[in-house]
Predict the 3D structure of the following.
Amino acid sequence: MALINPFRGLRPAPGRAQDVLAPPYDVLNSEEARAQAEGRPCSFLHVSKPEIDLPEGTDPYAPEVYAKAAENLNRIIAEHALIRDEVPSYYIYRLIREGRAQLGIVAAASVADYDTNRIRKHEFTKPVKEDDRVRQIEAVNAQTGPVMLAYPAAPHIDAMLEQASAGEPIVDVTTGDGVRHTLWLVSDPGKVDEITSAFDALPALYIADGHHRSASASRVAAARRGAGDEANPSYETFLTVTFPDHQMRIMDYNRVVRDLNGLSLDDLLARIGENFEIEKTASQARPTKAGEFGMYVAGQWFGLTIRPGLVPRDDPIGRLDPSLLGVHIITPILGIEDIRRDERIDFVGGIRGLDELERRVDSGEMAIAFALYPVAFEDLMAVAEAGEVMPPKSTWFEPKLADGMVSLMLD
């Protein structure tokens, strides 16, 4: 099987994309999803967040939730809001946010290449989240949440995608968050083969966002393979959208902590001052480069700059700002050993801005917030190439892909 493959996509019927497209399942909580889906019976949130159609307080991991997802997907198809292409195709997908464009390709990527790390990872996954996605895939017999990938420098592929997006799109809508989503269909067999060959010549692809979705697809494939399900090879692929690495935008992924670990503000500043230059600021302290951090505590912003000698330049993980913050403040000073499991720490995507950090602290919910400079995509690739993993919650990608744009049926 090639690195990427065409497939018969399930996508919005002509004129129905505005009714169907929804934010990714993991960027909204149940209450937010319920509000967004109000009055939109064909919103893909009824598939990706089906607990919104069950009584409030329903456990989102309950069996009836997954059953509801399947019921809702079948209903939306029956109502002709979604259609399925007759022939295996590729889909060229462009995102535009605030004048900045990304042009990529929707494809079925090889599970085998994921398993052998040709499709490179950079994060650990949580079993409970993997289990959730496995149950969702099995319930709806489809992959509905795309994994965002990046391909390394390949100008000929860039040109190929530009050429494929020159015609009339099959979808062109702007969602409520101001992002314009445009989709083109590529079904000509010659062009499909050309794209397949060009990508298959690449040494690797890199997961940007979607580690749980890709890991879950691998588990489903292994289970079906083990059960002797040889008739439907579609399970050997997973749903992806792949962009050129130079178009990827990573935003900051910030931290908020519930308490000061028993320290007074003066003691906290003294401890931090051992490894950082500290500057009290009159406005929000937004970092302008790697090694700078903003800190908000007790109604006051401080700019922090790590002392250069503490940055291990030859260590692709240790030199990352999320690592430096963890090693020098989060663990030794605030006493958080495992940021993946400790409930005293939470994470705020950069799309919410520094105002959200102030709000979380000023409300009394949290005691301190840290603003980070975004990780460079080159650093992400370096970690993946080293076969290592980044600190949890290191990258926040924008704009987000829309759920419901194209889904991969497992038949």
